[in-house]
Amino acid sequence: MQLVDMFFDEIEDAKKRKVPFIIPIGTIEYHAHHASCGCDTMVINGVMRELEKTKEIVVCPPIWYGVASYAVGGPETGTIQVDVDVYEQYIYCILRSMLYGGNKNIYCVAHHQTEEAGLMPMTIACHKAAKKLIMEYMEDTRGRGWWGSNEYSNYYKNLGSGDDPFSYIKVIPLISANAQHECGGFDHAGKFETSLLYALYPNHVDLVRTKDNTEWFAESAKEASMELGQHMVRCTLEALQETII
């Protein structure tokens, strides 16, 4: 289900049943000459489109602009960079509306600088926004000392479950570390990311243009294939089936 297509009663029902609400966390960033600048966000959208076929989820509008950084190229390449502190506050505001609206099963799914599922500025911003919000929400709704109260004597027993307040909002990479290994690798605008985008949105990849690439990171893009991309989609979906609950 796409959030923008849902009616109020449908949204309320999904929240009550704790259906996972997914926020795609991407960027607008230079992906060499052969791949579209929306690649990071689009691959999340595409995978969620496939995940919807087998799992009940609510896909929220994606966050297109992100903490891209100018590590790959400056603004002249089309990369749009949002300052990390501004971004954290923006994500915080979105999550605050959702949490106070009764949504307690939110996933921020990121695809940018997530090699080996490591933490980088954009994902750190999402984690900080989520944890800050949860602490404020629990104090606001349960009062100071909420964690130390006997009401939370089962806190450690419930860790990671739906009764754990720190599980109300989770920040995960689109492709987990294990899934990256199953896929065979991970890169930026190389054969792996290009193949993934190609399998999900073939019209947003033009392999003929790989001849115009001069940067090291895009050299392997000419090896991209639909078969590799479909394999990566399968590996990613298998991991997400277990992670998103």
From TrEMBL:
Origin: domain of life: Bacteria
Cofactor dependence: Zn(2+)
PANTHER family registered for this protein in UniProt: 2-AMINO-5-FORMYLAMINO-6-RIBOSYLAMINOPYRIMIDIN-4(3H)-ONE 5'-MONOPHOSPHATE DEFORMYLASE, 3-DEHYDRO-SCYLLO-INOSOSE HYDROLASE
A single GO molecular function term of this UniProt record: hydrolase activity, acting on carbon-nitrogen (but not peptide) bonds, in linear amides
Protein name according to UniProt: Creatinine amidohydrolase/Fe(II)-dependent formamide hydrolase-like protein
Annotated InterPro entries: Creatininase-like_sf, Creatininase/forma_Hydrolase
Family: Belongs to the creatininase superfamily.
GO terms of biological process kind: riboflavin biosynthetic process
Key words of the record: Hydrolase, Metal-binding, Zinc
Native source species: Muricomes intestini
Matches recorded under Pfam families: Creatininase (PF02633)
